[in-house]
């Protein structure tokens, strides 16, 4: 059964945890979907873990749309959410709705996600008003981390905690169905989770959120550039991949690959005819 917003909100109502992971292509997306994930996010973390960019602010709409399309068409059951890149709404807020529509119409996503910024509520109201579901994102907002003093936990004192609570209420009133808390003290995440109708998704925000999200490449041990405290690695596919490639190189070098099993052959009669022809 295809998971939709009522399914997500019913999980919150019934206190059933919501699972969410990123995916960026048609190799991993169907595997994550088959495993039973609730939400697949084509995160702008694509910029870092797949495209080798230094910051998420560098990624373009076309790059996000291409990868979102690949994920959406290979995902059958999970809800698919496209992450609005910085250029899609923060540089020119008046163009945000058009970009959001691309995620739905061109890529086939079910909803979009956007981070808090000065005009976030006005942008959200326009997008939701057009019938596009929005997932919000507060706390550590990577696209504007430079304005927050870097990649640091947010809401550790009363004043900043109050701001997070106010931002949550603003997003709820603007019509968001869900909200991501990144690098937020668990106490604040718990208070908000218990007071908002939105489904709360944590990443470095403790266990009391309605659900959790991680970057798939972090979970699988594929991204080695840095590892945030909130990441738990469930496999070491980087090590497995290097080992497999080394074995491949060795077999190629000693002529052990390919064997007859991985080769094709010509009909013997046809081969004899070819040899006779070449002999002439």
How would you describe this structure to a colleague?
This protein has 280 residues and is of the alpha/beta class. The protein folds into 2 domains: 5-235, Alpha-Beta Barrel (TIM Barrel), CATH 3.20.20; 240-279, no CATH class. Helices cover 42% and strands 14% of the residues. The chain has 12 helices and 8 strands.
Radius of gyration: 23 Å
CATH architecture call of the largest domain? Alpha-Beta Barrel
Number of domains: 2
Task: Kindly report how far apart the N and C termini lie.
Answer: 66 Å
Reported by name, the CATH topology of the largest domain is TIM Barrel
Largest sheet composition = 8 strands, parallel, barrel
Mean pLDDT: 95
Shape: elongated
Neighbour order of strands in the largest sheet? 1-2-3-4-5-6-7-8
Measured as a percent range, the helix fraction is: 40-55%
Count of DSSP helices? 12
């Amino acid at each position: 059964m295809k998971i939709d917003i009522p399914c997500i909100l019913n999980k919150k109502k019934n206190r059933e945890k919501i699972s969410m992971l990123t995916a960026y292509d048609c190799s991993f997306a169907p595997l994550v979907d088959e495993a039973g994930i609730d939400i697949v996010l084509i995160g702008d973390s694509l910029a870092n873990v797949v495209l080798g960019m230094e910051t998420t602010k560098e990624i373009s709409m076309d790059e996000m749309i291409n990868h979102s399309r690949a994920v959406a068409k290979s995902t059958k059951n999970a809800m698919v959410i496209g992450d609005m890149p910085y250029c899609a709404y923060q540089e020119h807020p008046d163009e945000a709705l058009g970009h959001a529509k691309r995620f739905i119409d061109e890529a086939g996503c079910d909803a979009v996600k956007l981070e808090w910024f000065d005009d976030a509520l006005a942008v959200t109201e326009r997008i939701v008003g057009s019938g596009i579901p929005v997932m919000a994102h507060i706390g550590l907002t990577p696209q504007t981390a430079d304005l927050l003093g870097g990649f640091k936990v947010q809401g550790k004192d009363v004043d900043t905690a109050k701001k997070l609570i106010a931002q949550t209420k603003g997003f709820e009133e603007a019509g968001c169905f869900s909200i991501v808390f990144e690098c937020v003290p668990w106490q604040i995440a718990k208070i908000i989770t218990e007071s908002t109708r939105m489904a709360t998704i944590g990443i470095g925000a403790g266990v009391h959120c309605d659900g959790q999200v991680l970057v798939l490449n972090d979970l699988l041990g594929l991204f080695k550039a840095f590892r945030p405290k909130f990441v738990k690695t469930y496999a070491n596919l980087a090590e497995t991949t290097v080992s497999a490639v080394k074995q491949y190189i060795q077999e190629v070098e000693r002529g052990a690959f390919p064997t007859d099993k991985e080769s094709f052959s010509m009909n013997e009669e046809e081969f004899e005819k070819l040899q006779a022809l070449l002999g002439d």
